[in-house]
Design a protein that fits this description.
single chain; 50% strand; mainly beta; Jelly Rolls; globular; eight-stranded antiparallel beta sheet; 1 helix; seven-stranded antiparallel beta sheet
């Protein structure tokens, strides 16, 4: 059964492989299976199918927003991750990850436009971190934070055309590209129907 999150003003649906999603006491938990990832290799054939991982997504309300959660990942293998996920189309999507990359917990991002790119931002101390996905007009932004108060800018980007960006789906993903499976939990989940005045001022 797909969990209902009272913190979010939209319903969620499960996509991809079974994620064993559950919600209790303000904590959303999901699990990726063996070798599950959401990625299109940048050096591969553009027609190759995208690999897939468990996703829990809903259509974001109109206008600017911020989706925030603290993620905790049970790291066991390289590239295990808990993710805030943005979906605009079958080959247009993005991930903000707390990922074991490959030996240290790291904030990583992927933006897929036909093929995926892959970029590491900075190493994190421990197995948890706050993540934030926001929409400002037709642009999207990723931020991360150690305490949910001071935010570090990670990336800003456009994805899809104006209509696609306006109809974006957002939510959560768990991956285990090289491992036998990974569990991640998301708490302190919040949705704010506002954008950000300054992407780089730490607010």
């Amino acid at each position: 059964m797909t969990p209902i999150l009272p913190e979010l003003p939209f319903e969620l649906q499960s996509f991809g492989p079974e994620g064993q999603w559950s919600y209790e006491g303000g904590v959303l938990t999901g699990r990726a299976g063996v070798r599950q990832d959401r990625f299109v290799p940048p050096g591969g054939d553009a027609l190759d199918p995208a690999s897939d991982a468990p996703r829990l997504l809903g259509v974001a309300p109109d206008g600017d927003f911020q989706l925030i959660a603290r993620v905790n990942v049970g790291f066991a293998a390289a590239f295990d991750a808990g993710v805030l996920y943005l979906h605009v189309g079958e080959r247009e999507w993005a991930k903000l990850c707390l990922e074991l990359s490959p030996a240290d917990p790291t904030i990583c991002t992927v933006v897929t436009r036909g093929r995926s790119d892959d970029a590491n931002a900075f190493v994190v101390d421990g197995e948890s971190c706050w993540l934030r996905l926001s929409r400002n007009g037709s642009a999207f932004a990723f931020h991360a934070s150690a305490d949910g108060e001071k935010w570090t800018f990670v990336r800003v980007f456009a994805l899809g055309d104006a209509d696609g960006a306006a109809a974006a789906s957002i939510g959560f993903l768990v991956q285990s590209p090289t491992g036998e499976g990974c569990e991640a939990s998301f708490d302190r989940i919040a949705f704010r129907p506002t954008g950000l005045e300054d992407l780089r001022d730490g607010s």
